[in-house]
Known about the structure:
With 392 residues, the chain is an alpha/beta fold. The chain is built from 13 helices and 15 strands.
Amino acid sequence: MKIxxxxxxxxxxxxxxxxxxxxxxxxYTNWQLIIMNDGSTDNVExxxxxxxxxxxxxxxxxxxxxxxxDQLNAIRNCIDYIKGEYVxxxxxxxxxxxxxxxxxxxxxxxxxxDTKVFIGDLITIDEKNDITGKLEVLKYAKNKKILxxxxxxxGRNLYVDVIFAxxxxxxxEIYNSYLTWNMPFWINLSEKADMLNVKSVDFPMLKYRxxxxxxxxxDIGKLNVINGELRTVTRxxxxxxxxxxxxxxxxYRIFNKLKLSSNFSPLYFNREERNKGAIVKFVIQKRFGDExxxxxxxxxxxxxxxxxxxxxxxxxxxxxxxxxYKGKDMRLFNNRLLNxxxxxxxxxxxxxMKIGFNEIVxxxxxxxxxxxxxxxxxxxxxxVKVSLKNNI
Length: 392
């Protein structure tokens, strides 16, 4: 059984050697390491190439590079190079927890052939690789209370994105939910609310480095993270109505702090949420406070869900060169948003969100899928219908 390790890297020349070594030192030797340089501006490429040239594992290590597109695109662009039956994602500032991880994972995979993905706890380390603690991940449970709990927990991942997954599952399911739309890998909300067959293992899956440069510790990182959280919450609102949302959120937070979250069961109904506006505003405020209204997208989204009106907006033609964002492109979108560089099309839709609408009318069949993707990215799907203008 071959394992394909995907390693996106960006300006991690100071840590990547230790990360690669944690792979090279594995007692299980049937692996392939795919490194994707996401447009680094440091000397990480020279560091990697020198390592490969001097390594006894040079035939197992593949190096590729791309223009800076952010980590989800870096992972996506490794898909064509996967040769293994299982896939493991390892970021270049983290480490494998010990030399026998892959041996244990292969044993789990053989013992649980119907399981699509395996997850586990994380050991935390600092810049010097010293252990600082442990992040215990909620034990995975595929039951009916989990998805409404995810909605209640502000769309924040209940589990972890450190995964050991079957290649087929990685390409057919995780690729869409996580790598394309930046939502938790373990959910499928394409037609109905569903969960993947995942198993928690009883050993650590990663040494996770905590430092000031972590993704969430800056403004652009917060915007990127909340993009996926909002998409998750708004999609789940189609399926679940959670009364007393704020009260239940704080009760669940207490359960979570006491490490009793697995015992919590939210009160919910299997119907569309009635109080979308208040929930969306609450989710955003928990990340940004009242400062959110200075961001035209976040403010527009709150106003959209508060409006709840029937109204059409019209898009005459979508230029063939118009960039259509998906969840994987959230950093590009947020950078352009903050630098006042969004296209007229996106500015038009965001401004219309402040008024409210429930239908986008396009002039060409070719624009229907583009408009649907726009509603998905802006967290308006599935509450906005896309239709073709009747030209007769």
